[in-house]
Design brief:
Elements (H helix, E strand, L loop, with lengths): L5 E4 L2 E4 L7 H23 L10 H10 L2 H21 L9 H51 L1
Antiparallel strand pairs: 1-2
Helix pairs in contact: 1-2, 1-3, 2-3, 2-4, 3-4
Organism: Oryzomonas rubra
Protein name: DUF4118 domain-containing protein
InterPro entries: KdpD_sf (IPR038318)
Length: 149
C-alpha cells in the first residue's frame, strides 16, 4: 500500500521526502526549539541587538517541512515571541502604540514568508509528481510498442 504522496513506477514507490506526514511533528519540534532559543537570545541581548531576521528560520523550516498550516502557526508564534521579547527588554518607543505597529509588520512578514514557502513547496511536489507520472506513461508506451512490434 502506498501513501497519497506516492506514485508507483514499475513496482517502485516514488515518494518525495518532504511530503511524508511523519516529518511534520519533527519539523514543528525542531522549529519550536529554534524559536525558544531565538526568543531567549533576543531577550538576553536586549532590544539594541536585532534578532528579527533570525525569526524567519523556524518559519521557513515549519513551512517547508510541515506545510501551510504548520508554517502559519509558526509565523504566529514567532510574532508573539518577538512581541514578548521586545516588551520584556523595555524597548523605548516614542509613542506607546508603535510596538503594536512593529509587531504587526513583523507578523505580516512572517506570514508572507510562510505562505510563499509553502506554495513553492506545493509547486515542487506537484511538479515532481507530474514528472513521475509522465515517466510512468512513457514506460508504459515503450512496453506497448514492444508488444505491437
Amino acid at each position: 500500500m502506498t501513501s497519497p504522496n506516492a506514485i508507483m513506477i514499475r513496482g517502485w514507490s516514488y515518494r518525495h521526502p518532504l511530503a511524508l506526514a511523519q516529518y511534520k511533528t519533527a519539523a514543528m519540534l525542531v522549529s519550536g526549539a529554534c524559536l525558544i532559543l531565538l526568543c531567549f537570545l533576543d531577550f538576553i541581548t536586549g532590544y539594541e541587538f536585532g534578532f528579527f531576521i533570525f525569526y524567519f528560520i523556524p518559519v521557513a523550516f515549519a513551512s517547508w517541512y510541515g506545510g501551510k498550516r504548520e508554517g502559519l502557526a509558526m509565523a504566529l508564534l514567532c510574532g508573539i515571541c518577538w512581541y514578548v521579547a521586545d516588551r520584556l527588554t523595555h524597548h523605548p518607543y516614542s509613542r506607546p502604540y508603535f510596538i503594536y505597529w512593529e509587531t504587526f509588520m513583523r507578523l505580516l512578514s512572517f506570514i508572507t514568508t510562510s505562505l510563499t514557502l509553502s506554495r513553492i513547496r506545493d509547486l515542487v511536489l506537484n511538479e515532481e509528481r507530474l514528472a513521475a507520472e509522465l515517466l510512468a506513461a512513457y514506460e508504459e508506451l515503450k512496453q506497448l510498442r514492444r508488444l505491437s512490434s
